[in-house]
Amino acid sequence: MIEAEDLTLPGIAHGFFTREGGFSSGLFASLNAGLGSGDDLEHVRQNRALVSARLGVAAEKLVTPYQVHGNEVAVVSGPVLERPRVDGLVTATPGVAIGVLTADCGPVLFADAEARVVGACHAGWKGALSGVFRSTVEVMESLGARRDRMVAVLGPTISQANYEVGPDFPNPFLEGNAGRAQYFTPSIKEGHHMFDLPRFLVDEMKALGLGLVRDLALCTYENEEWFYSYRRATHRKENDYGRLISAIALQG
Predict the structure, then answer these.
(1) Residue 73: inside a domain
(2) Contact between 6 and 151 (Cβ < 8 Å)
């Protein structure tokens, strides 16, 4: 588990969990938290119980969404029977952990320690482009948080050096905002580009006027020992991959 110094705040537990220390094996070794993966479901549940224990909450009170690469956000106050189809979760309830699953996309944890409101956000490029950060911040504000007090930390995410995209990929970024060309550099493959997802995510959050935005600058693709990577698995023609979990909770 990786802890961010900026999120080490009174009354808050958090962690950007690595792939180490769990029960899964093979492609999923070992702390796979993905309920939607092809891993043994009992192993996944045991892994999530380990995460819950590290955060000091009951296993049934660790909530993650069914992520859809959108901009919708849900408020969580306790266990859920069905995972909400959103990409952000917010809570002001002690003893509940909220988290997101990633394997190259950006996991972001938010906190306003004074208001005792926390959030977790899955930020792929589609969600970030459509405003998932703004949605998360606004829902946190509806529960009493203030954006000038919010701390937001971006966890392990694929780096620009490992994120090659095709010729048409930049188009939705550049429509009406030519300044976003800064996130793309030419690839060695003609007509392709290398996309700086972490920088784009950080800049999108900074534009919202948050109190502090930090990037842990950890690449999921490069560090196979610590992280799962969808793109790495794809390049190897593997048929599945594990999911990292990043989660945050208010202590009672």
Answers:
(1) yes
(2) yes
Distance CA 93, CA 118 (A): 9
Answer yes or no: are the C-beta atoms of 95 and 105 closer than 8 Å.
no
CATH of the domain at 141: 3.60.140.10
Contact 86, 63 (CB under 8 A): no
Is 177 within a domain?
Answer: no
What is the spatial distance between Cα 223 and Cα 207, in angstroms, rounded to a whole number?
Answer: 30
Q: What is the mean pLDDT of each run of 10 residues along the chain (252 residues)?
A: 97 98 98 97 98 98 98 97 97 98 98 98 97 98 98 98 98 94 97 98 98 98 98 98 98 88
Specify the number of domains making up the chain.
1
Locate all alpha helices (DSSP H) within the chain, ordered by sequence. 41-55, 125-130, 132-142, 171-174, 197-206, 230-235
Rounded CA gap, 245 and 224, in Å?
Answer: 15
- Residue among 149, 155, 195, 188 at smallest CA distance from 171: 195
Q: Please report whether residue 108 resides in a domain.
A: yes
